[in-house]
């Protein structure tokens, strides 16, 4: 909400309060101020000019040589390329050595051989956004009012010397989405009562009901709806003061009728809509739900396919407006309009929200309908708008508003005690102080023995319970004035839980292995959520997602990491090692679980180069064993290496069938590791990528990893090597397991140090070599003991795998 400081001063006396002081005060009383800007700041030597003479440039088909009165004895020659420049108009002139928007300095110069002493400016060149410039001046220069004095600074004529205060309005304070609401708020802060000017409505004797009838089919959808008729209007540009108000509020001026509706929107927070009565095609207005597959061409020229969720304004037959969102193109106000049908209404907020989201049409009007409107001023806003249209467009207002539905606004009574206020706020406020706060807020109240009955007016529809009253007292009293105290009593030192402590160690380990932490969105698309799943689950959908890309809670972490990889690859990053600790959300529809089951996972993705090429050696690309090495380090840190097993799988369609393994903790599957399937990698636009995802909760909850401390043996260790030839489908894991079972209690370690396939090796076979380490903590091992253990290993491998010992 953009608030004009000048406009606010029309209702309150803020002559002793600077805009910045006002902004600071509003911020500490509950309405956040984003910024305070003065449009004229940074601009210099920009004045009013009067074009006395305008002739075509002899050496250009679009330039004009203008003689301009800038308040000096002699006329100033300025070359201008605007198509609408002509003699007899007042314009914006940037003098030599002036500063315009963007800190651009204007110098005296020549254009096609002709001297130009400055520049005749458009609104855009002095800082206005193209979206708010009146269409008639959007391709050229702005005309100033006829009474503008040549040579005077231009800023006051355009209200550029005003301070624009940008408010960040929370949904519960929609009353501040209007100048009247802001005036009441500021009045409460400075203990003033706003003084609003009365706009007298003059009606002719002819009843409006003779020209139109109104029917509302469902008062739940449309609690209030009325039409006023204004005849014999003359469409023209609005006066400069009205255009200035709208442009400073970020709204483009259109014409005197449409601009009045936007002015009332800013003043009352009440959206209005003006129809060209003659274009309606009937003398009837019916407000109803749209029928399936009905169509409406809205003011932006787009044909909208309507649904039964949409409330529409019809002429009894076809829609002419999308209620609360946008009018129809066929009934818009244009230069030929002579009779205006002015609409004022209240619509059901949720329906307006759904419609604006459905058609991606967010407007100042729809925003206010969604958040709430002061029901007590619907009639007043419509009457003031009709009176202004009559004054500015020379129209005649027909007698009476034709109403199809009407709502009666009621005050709300809230009871509260002084003790309750003080107990909640920790204050010692007196009755007099609280009375003063209620007086400042404009709330009627009665007090008896510290017991209050507070009557809240309809303009503050956000207040209905005790807590609301307490908040109002705290705001106006000043949050900075509330007492602060330190906690009393004994305190105990905090500590991390076992899971928190281990999670920190896991993060440190991953980062020590060269991975960087990523944080991805928990919301994703349904397609991505159903990929890389470790167990079956239904997706958990949001009822009203902000976008379709964030509509479902994730069931895996890898899809988010692949998005991160794709983002980095697109920016020429070649070394990518990312990990994430986060929750996934499982939903079991059959069990009718209201909320999803949250499970903490850890995942990583490796892509590109593991080491880069340099003078010391060649670069190395990531592969399966780099990924598995990270997991081996993790399991070693958690002391789970003895209970973790890997099992080759081809069941996951998103993973490479020959380079993927499930990970088991005992008999329970806790994760997987492997290469992303090439087709999936292509869909994500990433190169060859290796990923893993684990159920971190299950890993940390397992007690197999408890450390058992043993004294270092005083006796020497003995190492023996064994080489064997086995079929290639036999895994290293199976062989190591067999060796450990056969070698006996003195075996402390088994390491594979060679794998070979190729020349001199039978097809379908591979050669493996292992180093076995033996230690007896109580005595020195003898050759006989080692040989017996090795014989048992040889026999077990031969019998179990048909291994050939080499």
Largest sheet data: 8 strands, mixed
Helical run tally: 19
Q: Give the N-terminus to C-terminus distance in angstroms.
A: 84 Å
Just name the CATH architecture of the largest domain. 2-Layer Sandwich
Are there runs of 5+ residues with pLDDT below 50, and where?
none
Chain-averaged pLDDT: 92
Please bin the fraction of helical residues.
Answer: 25-40%
The share of residues in extended strands comes to 25-35%
Number of strands: 41
Q: Rough shape?
A: elongated
Count of domain modules: 6
Can you characterise this structure?
- One of its GO terms (biological process) is phenylalanyl-tRNA aminoacylation.
- Mg(2+) binds at residues 462, 468, 471-472.
- The protein is of the alpha+beta class.
- α5 (256-268) runs antiparallel to α8.
- The chain is elongated, with a radius of gyration of 39 Å.
- The mean pLDDT is 92.
């Amino acid at each position: 909400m953009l608030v004009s400081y000048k406009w606010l001063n029309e209702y309150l006396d803020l002559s002793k309060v600077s805009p910045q002081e006002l902004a600071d005060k509003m911020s500490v009383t509950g309405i956040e101020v984003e910024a305070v800007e003065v449009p004229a700041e940074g601009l210099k030597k920009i004045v009013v000019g009067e074009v006395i003479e305008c002739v075509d440039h002899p050496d250009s088909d679009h330039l004009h040589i203008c003689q301009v009165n800038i308040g000096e004895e002699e006329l100033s020659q300025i070359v201008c390329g605007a198509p609408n420049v002509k003699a007899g108009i007042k314009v914006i002139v940037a003098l030599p050595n002036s500063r315009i928007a963007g800190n651009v300095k204007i110098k005296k110069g020549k254009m096609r051989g002709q001297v130009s002493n400055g520049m005749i400016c458009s609104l855009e060149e002095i800082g206005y956004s193209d979206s708010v410039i009146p269409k008639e001046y959007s391709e050229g220069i702005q005309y100033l009012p006829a009474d503008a004095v040549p040579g005077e600074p231009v800023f006051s004529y355009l209200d550029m010397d005003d301070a624009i205060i940008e408010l960040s309005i929370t949904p519960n304070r929609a009353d501040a989405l209007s100048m009247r609401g802001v005036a009441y708020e500021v009045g409460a802060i400075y203990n003033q009562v706003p003084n609003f000017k009365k706009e007298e409505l003059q009606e002719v004797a002819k009843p409006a009901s003779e020209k139109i009838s109104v029917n509302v089919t469902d008062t739940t959808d449309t609690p209030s709806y009325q039409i006023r008729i204004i005849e014999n209007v003359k469409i023209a540009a609005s006066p400069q003061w009205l255009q200035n108000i709208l442009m400073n509020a970020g709204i483009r001026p259109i014409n005197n009728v449409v601009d009045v509706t936007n002015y009332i929107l800013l003043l009352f927070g009440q959206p209005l809509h003006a129809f060209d009565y003659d274009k309606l095609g009937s003398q009837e207005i019916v407000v109803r739900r749209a029928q399936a597959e009905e169509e409406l061409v809205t003011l932006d020229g787009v044909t909208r396919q309507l649904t039964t969720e949409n409330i529409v304004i019809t002429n009894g037959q076809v829609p002419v407006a999308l209620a609360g969102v946008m009018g129809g193109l066929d009934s818009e106000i244009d230069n030929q309009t002579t009779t205006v049908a002015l609409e004022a209404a209240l619509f059901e907020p949720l329906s307006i929200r759904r419609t604006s989201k459905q058609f991606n049409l967010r407007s100042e009007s729809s925003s206010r309908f969604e958040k709430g409107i002061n029901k007590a001023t619907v009639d007043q806003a419509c009457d003031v708008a009709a009176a202004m249209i009559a004054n500015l467009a020379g129209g005649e207002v027909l007698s009476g508003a034709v109403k199809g539905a009407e709502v009666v606004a009621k005050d709300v009574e809230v009871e509260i005690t002084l003790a309750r206020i003080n107990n909640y706020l920790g204050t010692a406020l007196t009755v007099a102080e609280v009375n003063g706060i209620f007086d400042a807020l404009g709330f009627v109240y009665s007090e008896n023995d510290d017991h209050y009955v507070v009557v809240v007016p309809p303009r503050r529809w956000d207040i209905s319970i005790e807590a609301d009253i307490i908040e109002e007292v705290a705001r106006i009293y000043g949050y900075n004035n509330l007492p602060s105290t330190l906690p009393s009593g004994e305190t105990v030192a905090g500590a991390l839980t076992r899971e928190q402590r281990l999670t920190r160690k896991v993060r440190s380990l991953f980062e020590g292995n060269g991975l960087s932490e990523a944080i991805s969105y928990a919301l994703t698309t349904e397609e991505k959520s159903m990929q890389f799943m470790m167990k079956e689950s239904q997706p958990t959908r949001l009822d009203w997602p902000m976008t379709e890309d964030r509509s479902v809670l994730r069931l895996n972490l890898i899809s988010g990491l692949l998005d991160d990889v794709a983002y980095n690859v697109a920016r020429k990053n070649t070394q990518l090692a990312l990990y994430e600790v986060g929750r996934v959300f499982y939903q079991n529809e059959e069990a009718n679980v209201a909320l999803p089951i949250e499970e903490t996972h850890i995942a990583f993705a490796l892509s590109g180069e593991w080491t880069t090429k340099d003078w010391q050696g060649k670069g190395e690309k990531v592969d399966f064993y780099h990924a598995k090495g990270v997991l081996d380090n993790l399991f070693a840190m958690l002391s789970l290496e003895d209970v973790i097993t890997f099992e080759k799988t081809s069941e996951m369609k998103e993973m490479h069938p020959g380079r993927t393994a499930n990970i088991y903790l005992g008999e329970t599957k806790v994760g997987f590791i492997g290469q992303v399937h090439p087709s999936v990698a292509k869909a994500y636009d990433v190169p060859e990528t290796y990923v893993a995802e684990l159920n971190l909760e299950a890993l940390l909850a397992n007690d197999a990893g408890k450390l058992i401390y043993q004294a270092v043996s005083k006796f020497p260790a003995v190492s023996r090597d064994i080489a064997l030839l086995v079929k290639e489908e036999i895994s290293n894991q199976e062989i190591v397991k067999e060796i450990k079972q056969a070698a006996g209690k003195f075996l402390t370690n088994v390491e594979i140090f060679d794998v070979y396939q190729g020349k001199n090796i039978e097809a379908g076979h591979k050669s493996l070599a292992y180093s076995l380490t033996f230690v007896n903590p109580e005595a020195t091992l003898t050759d006989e003991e080692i040989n017996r253990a090795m014989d048992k290993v040889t026999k077990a491998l031969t019998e179990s795998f048909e291994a050939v010992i080499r």
